[in-house]
Amino acid sequence: MHAEDRVLDDEEVSGRILTRRKFLKAAAGLGAAFGGYGFLGEPNWLEVTHTQISVHGLPEPFEGYKFALVSDPHWPEGIEQGFMTRVGNLIQLECVKAILVPGDLVDQSSGKKVSLKGVFDNWTAPDGQFATLGNHDHWSGAKHVTRELAENTPLKLLDNEFHLIEKKGSALAIVGVDDYTDGFMDVDKAFAGLDPEIPRILMSHNPDVAHDMTGDYRVDLQVSGHMHGGQVNLFGWAPVTPSKYGQTFVRGLVQGRKNLVYVTRGICRTKIHLRVGSRPEVSIIELVSADS
Ligand SMILES: [Fe+2]
């Protein structure tokens, strides 16, 4: 008879049951803690990041120019009004000059028309607040989202066009393109008439544009969202990424084919309200001269 074949006495049996129970209890506790963190903790745990970008030929009036980059609210399925207001309040504390929102403003899979009345009310900055459309805006009805943005928000939609921010005879351009995969991105139209001497920030929901954009256009910085930092990000690796370049553009500052792109993690929690290793992000970008 092997040792493990022998019949256990009552005390040994109850000891083993207790050990197993303890293990299951600990595992359940860990699972609950992980689930609580992923579903209830991290999705509400906003992070404000600060990044300095050097720009060649940045006019003196724009030295130290700060703007907020906040993407992917996914209203109303991925976020609530309280969280939107909190984000707006945080932006106000940073004293930025402009706010850039590169897409997925709306997410409504039921087909019901969404109202944006009041949703972005405290997302305001002295030089303006600008948006582009993302794939979810198109899936939710681009025409309706466009109308809502114009009638019920302070956001100006840049749909294959640019806006000039002017200071003391100098200018900085914000160029916005429609969504790469589900919209009608027209880069030539977006840059048409823009003086090549003027530094510019390109807003594109999808960061893949940094590798795929054709045409010889000056871009000093591209800003994008779409990736949500992977939503679940395990020590820098995201199991699911909506990009043909895999992990390349998952988050942060990345070198594209010709220009840098800052990929913000966005603020939504998605329909299942889950985030792990990818806190919702309000990105504050500061431009500084690369020539001094
Ligand atoms: Fe998104």
Based on helices, strands and strand pairing, what is the structural class? alpha/beta
Cα Rg:
24 Å
CATH class of the largest domain: Alpha Beta
Mean of all residue-level pLDDT scores: 91
Global morphology: elongated
Summarize the structure.
The chain is α/β, with parallel strands linked by helices and 292 residues long. The chain has helices at 10-41, 81-93, 135-139, 142-152, 187-191, 209-212, and strands at residues 47-55, 65-69, 75-76, 98-102, 106-107, 129-132, 156-157, 161-167, 170-176, 200-203, 221-224, 252-255, 260-263, 281-289.
Molecular structure report:
The chain is of the alpha/beta class and 292 residues long. It has 2 domains: 3-33; 47-289, Purple Acid Phosphatase, chain A, domain 2 (4-Layer Sandwich). It is 24% helix and 23% strand. It has 6 helices and 14 strands. The strands form 3 sheets. The chain has a 6-stranded mixed β-sheet with strand order 1-14-2-4-6-7. It is elongated, with a radius of gyration of 24 Å. It starts with 9 loop residues before the first helix and ends with a strand. The structure holds fe (ii) ion. Fe (ii) ion is lined by residues 72, 74, 104, 134, 136, 226, 228, 266.
